[in-house]
Amino acid sequence: SLAPFANSLERTLQESLGVANPLACASAELAVDSLLRTACDELGSLDVAFNASSTYSLVVGGALDSASVQATGISAGGVRATRLRIDAEDVAFVPLADPLALLTGGASFPGSAAELSKRLPNLRAPTPIRFDLRLSQEDLNESPVLFGALQELLRELIRSGVSAAIGEVLPRDSQALTINLNRVEALQGGRIILQADAESIQRDGTKLALQGMRVRTFVRVNQLDGLVMLDSPELISSFEGFGAKVEVGLPFLRGAGIPLPDFLSFSSLVVDNGGIDARGTITISPVDYEDLGRLAAELQRDLQSTPQAVSAGEAASAPAPNFASNSASDSASDMPPDEPLARLPPR
Q1: Domain of 33?
Q2: pTM to 2 decimals?
Q3: Which residues of the chain have pLDDT under 50?
Q4: Which residues, including other chains, have CB under 8 Å from residue 49's CB and lie 6 or more apart?
Q5: How far apart are CA 25 and CA 67, in angstroms?
Q6: Domain count, the chain
């Protein structure tokens, strides 16, 4: 095996370069750092760390001891966060072929697509990645993805409340109910306040509008069913008088929730001190390169089957303008009529 020689050579290079981590880890840190800085719309601080016993164990053995990314003031993909930290341990990649076996002829380079997919960088098995996330009130208001999710939660909440009030279940895609979330407020004591405008169309066609509606609700995670829920919601009414302001909550009959994707789970979700602290796990599955290849082939076939412009043969078969005949006729019409030749006098 080349492992002892490769590890000894790497230690010598590390001492000469003054680098503590294996060279592959240092290269991966620089690559991920550059990629994240390019992909993010906003980014405050960033710290990327990869740890492995050696470059040989990482590249050939596919063993990564740990990896972590810490960022503050980050905004990317329609999500903004005050703080983000992700960690992974004992990450196993698909190992590459042994270089010594390749040199001695004991292994061959991949030829088919299936063999090539086994040599591309990939995970051996689904890998859990822990995350720790801090969202402020402004993060929620300025993140299109999170803001849209809260609006859908509120719409489901109002839909269930209206359905209970009229004794008829409104379809989820019903156009009779419109909810426009305006702002998220007051993240304290496990509860948030959602300020929105609502409009409902009655059976006779009349419209009922409610401007500046404020709904106060707890935000909880149902780990058993995999739901993010608005629990114990209340419609808030405010009264002012005698130097005091009183808020009265009219409770809804039920809450609302949206399912989480299978790869996402929360271990805790705390709403307090003007923000949300969320912790959980994201499970990343290995990449199916063969499936990606099939999708690429189908896309290529679809592009090739798209009707093209007029072919060269059709363009060649079109009659060309006869410029020569036109010019000849024009010149003939412009010439004066022929005059008789003058006769010579007799000798």
Answers
A1: 3-125
A2: 0.70
A3: 102, 108-111, 166, 309-313, 323-345, 347
A4: 29, 66, 67, 68, 69
A5: 10
A6: 2
